[in-house]
Every structure is written in C-alpha cells, then in structure tokens.
Amino acid sequence: MEYNTQLKKIALPEYGRHIQKMVYEVMAIPDREKRNEQARAVIAVMGNLFPYLRDINDFKHKLWDHLYLISDFQIDIDSPYPKPSPITFEEKPRHVPYSSPDEIKMKHYGKGVQDMIQKIVSIEDAEVRNAAVKALANHMKKAYLAWNKDVVSDDIIFKDIEILSSGKLKVNTDLRLSVGNYNVNGNNHSTQNPSSINSNGSGNGQNRQKRQMQQQQRRRQQQGGKS
Description:
This protein is mostly helical. The chain contains 8 helices and 3 strands. 15% of the residues are buried.
C-alpha cells in the first residue's frame, strides 16, 4: 500500500497530488510535440480547479509558472511565457516598517490622524487647508467619543490639533463640530436612541407602558358604568 508519508512532498498542496503526478507523466513523454500538448491539457485542468480566478490578470501566466514549480523547473516544454527562475520563488518578503508606539502622541486618535495633520500642514491653499482641518476635526471628535463616551467639547479637539501639529495649525474657535447627535460645543441634543422612537414620536419603553395602563383604567371605568 502506498502512503503519502512515503511519497515525495507536494510542491503546491492547493493542486493536490494527482496534478503533481500528471506533471511527472508529462515530463516522461519523449516526443516534444506530444509533451507540449499534454502540458496544455494539464494547464486546463489546473485552471478548472480555480474557476473564480480566471478574471484575474495574468491568471494563465501564473498557471504556467506553477507548472514549472511543480516539476521543480525540470520540465522541458514550449511555454507561451518565459521560464521562471527558482530564485523568484525563493525571494524573502520585504521588511514591513511598523510604527513604534512611542511615535503616536495621542493613541486614541491613532497614527492615521497624526499623519493627516502633517499632510494638512503642507497644504498651501488656505481655503483648502481650512476645509481639511474642519473635516479632520469632526473625524477626531468621532474618534474621541469612540473611546470616551462622555461629552467632549470642541475646544479640546482644537487644542489637540494644535498640539499634534506643533502649533502650525490654528483652528477658528467659532467653528462648531457635528458628529452624530453631538453638536454645538459638544452638547448632546438627543440622548435618546433613535431606534426607540416610534412613529408618534414617543418612546417604546416607559411611554408605551403608561399608555397601556391608561387604556386598562378606561376599560375598567367603562365596565363599572355599564353595571
């Protein structure tokens, strides 16, 4: 009996061992024309395994590269694409430059807000810069409320922008931010959840219970009058 542990390691497990055996059979065909024909047939089978990837650019190119990889780059065929080099598949991934936590001055805003402020500082057009600052301030207020459910005043956001920009951005104190139900100086204009409001504008909780009690009371009074 043949066990997988006794067989050669599968080069690309996503294609399975049967595809690898087919590639080995193609490699053993002596006639070059017949070998090319069978290689194209194997490519077709490989493509049928992943039909949802056919719309991807260079899908056919990837299949031929995988064919060479499965054969350990030993198959001798006429490919419509250049033969890949083993070094291409052995290349190590590039180093990802992660940001140090110390580089983020105010972690509740995140590194993205800090980078956006630096971009806004470099904008020369005053009108465009002011519009960008206003949009950023509203976003910062939203980010602030995500971590701190208490009401935050606009002055705190303006001060944080000045700190993060090292004093290069001055926000007009007359500006009023708006984030969801929070508006004008951070006052909460609507503390009630909108989903709890029915079509009559009353709450679905205590108000509904109060109406039910009133209806029951009126029914008892009507029944008492009839008797």
